[in-house]
Amino acid sequence: MSPYHPEKINRVIVKLSGEFLAGEKKFGFDEALIDRITNDIIEVKRLGYSVGIVLGGGNIFRGGTWSNAKMNRVTLDNIGMMATIQNALYLSEVLKIKNYPTEVLSSVKAEKIAKFYTPSRALQSMKEGKIVFLCGGTGSPFFTTDTAVVLRAAELEADLVLKGTKVAGVYTKDPARYEDAEFIQELTFDEAINKQLNVMDMTAFALAKENNIPIKVFDLSIPGNLAKAIADVKVGTFVGNDLNNS
């Protein structure tokens, strides 16, 4: 029996990487891709789920290149957090044009452009039927947006974290580099941590384990796959606690 029970899912937090938003351009926004991704988000909303979205900022700024390696890490992370706010504002506007109400909540204070994030404010916006963007990362340097999405899921008592990637899910090794990489349908957080499976950072996996927040890793490049990852046991890789006892 599968440990994944889609019928129990009501509130989801979606993680979208900044690099994915850029598409083949590698920088900024791929307009056709943004149109398709927002349609996928709308499909999930139409199915009745409460939706929160955490965005990366890599399509605008990445702090790990050789040219800025000697710069202050805190400054670089702050720039990255601001990039996630830009992405949230952009996708929010696209969804509003499509007549879907949104709320942009930032963990970094930027009162002129976004409300400050609090769990109660996010939950209220979800109750009002809004698609809620949770931007600014964790609000602190040294933490990735992978950790941010799990943190927000814990605070908002989400039923599932959805991690969009460019491959079907989690593999035994990088499928882009190794032809013998094997797809993993389900695994525990302990297995993900012990095997150093880098689909999410280890801090995120440890936080998810501690708070018992299941994660579905799936291929976001396939149109409609966001909704399918919630509803279909066989779409993506399920990561959770004590799978044999579920």
Question: In summary, what is this structure?
Answer:
With 246 residues, this protein is an alpha/beta fold. Helices cover 36% and strands 19% of the residues.
Task: Provide the fold topology.
Layout: E1 11-16, H1 18-22, H2 31-46, E2 50-55, H3 73-97, E3 102-106, E4 115-116, H4 119-127, E5 131-135, H5 145-155, E6 160-165, E7 170-171, E8 183-184, E9 186-188, H6 189-194, H7 202-211, E10 215-219, H8 225-231, E11 237-240
Parallel strand pairs: 1-2, 1-6, 2-5, 3-4, 3-5, 6-10, 9-11
Antiparallel strand pairs: 7-8, 10-11
Helix pairs in contact: 5-7
What are the salient characteristics of this protein?
246 residues, Carbamate kinase, nine-stranded mixed beta sheet, two-stranded antiparallel ribbon, 11 strands, globular
Give an account of the 3D structure.
With about 250 residues, the protein is α/β, with parallel strands linked by helices. It has one domain: Carbamate kinase (3-Layer(aba) Sandwich). It contains eight helices and eleven strands. It has helices at about 20, 30-45, 75-95, 120-125, 145-155, 190-195, 200-210, 225-230, and strands at about 10-15, 50-55, 100-105, 115, 130-135, 160-165, 170, 185, 185-190, 215-220, 235-240. Helix 5 runs parallel beside helix 7. It is globular. The mean pLDDT is about 95.
| Biggest pleated sheet | 9 strands, mixed
Q: In angstroms, what is the radius of gyration?
A: 17 Å
The CATH homology group name: Acetylglutamate kinase-like
The helix/strand series, from N terminus to C terminus, equals: EHHEHEEHEHEEEEHHEHE
What's the end-to-end separation, in Å?
8 Å
Instruction: Give the class-level CATH name.
Output: Alpha Beta
Poorly predicted ranges (pLDDT <50, ≥5 residues)?
Answer: none
| Helix/strand structural class | alpha/beta
> In one word, what is the shape?
globular
The spatial strand order of the largest sheet comes to 4-3-5-2-1-6-10-11-9
Number of domains: 1
As a percent range, the share of strand residues is 15-25%
- The CATH architecture category equals 3-Layer(aba) Sandwich
Compute the average pLDDT.
93
Q: Give me the count of strands.
A: 11
Share in helix: 25-40%
